[in-house]
């Protein structure tokens, strides 16, 4: 039973061995039977009583698609062998043709929920879509223009994005001193 009605926090059902509460980016709280997401083995053991798992950037519509996939594949045996996950299963036809935005949300949901089989499936769809495309075509397909283009972009403190402000740069003398110290260390026994 999937309930997608928003439930006020004080009226939420207690987390039991049977239901997990998931909250989407559109603030819908969805009670999901544990049996439907057992393939998300990384998630289930970590959930505490009365905890609602927030799924930022995942709409309730995409979460319904994810849950449908998990229900369809509930009995499948997936042992980590990526070769057994194919794009040919008729139960997955709608997912293979989903929009790029929905595909990205599904990929994020699979990662957040720890659903390895779904993660492999969405990665295979993604790989098929970007095969043979240029970097610019891929950026356009997935609207990732905000992600750097390879040129160092400067942030507010004048450093290139991605540089860690907590570490100072080492000059050549510092590097030589560190190399000498490493050479003089005794090997671990």
Automatic annotation (TrEMBL):
Compositional bias (Acidic residues): 150-189
Record InterPro entries: SKP1, SKP1-like_dim_sf, SKP1/BTB/POZ_sf, Skp1_comp_POZ
A Pfam family that the UniProt record links to this protein: Skp1_POZ
Superkingdom classification of source: Eukaryota
SKP1 component POZ domain location: 18-74
Region Disordered: start-end pairs: 141-189
Name of the protein: SKP1 component POZ domain-containing protein
């Amino acid at each position: 039973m999937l309930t997608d009605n928003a439930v006020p926090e004080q009226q939420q059902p207690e987390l039991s061995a049977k239901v997990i509460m998931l909250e989407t980016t559109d603030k819908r709280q969805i009670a999901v039977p544990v049996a439907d997401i057992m393939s998300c083995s990384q998630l289930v053991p970590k959930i505490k009583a009365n905890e609602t798992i927030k799924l930022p950037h995942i709409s309730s519509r995409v979460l319904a698609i994810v849950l449908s996939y998990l229900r369809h594949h509930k009995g499948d045996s997936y042992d980590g062998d990526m070769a057994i996950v194919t794009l040919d299963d008729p139960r997955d036809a709608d997912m293979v043709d989903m929009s790029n935005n929905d595909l990205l949300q599904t990929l994020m949901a699979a990662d957040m929920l720890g659903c390895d089989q779904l993660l492999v499936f969405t990665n295979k769809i993604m790989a098929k879509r970007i095969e043979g495309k240029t970097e610019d075509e891929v950026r356009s397909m997935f609207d990732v223009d905000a992600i750097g283009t390879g040129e160092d972009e400067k942030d507010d403190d004048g450093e290139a994005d991605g540089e860690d402000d907590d570490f100072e740069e080492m000059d050549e003398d510092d590097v030589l001193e560190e190399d000498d110290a490493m050479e003089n260390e005794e090997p671990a026994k």
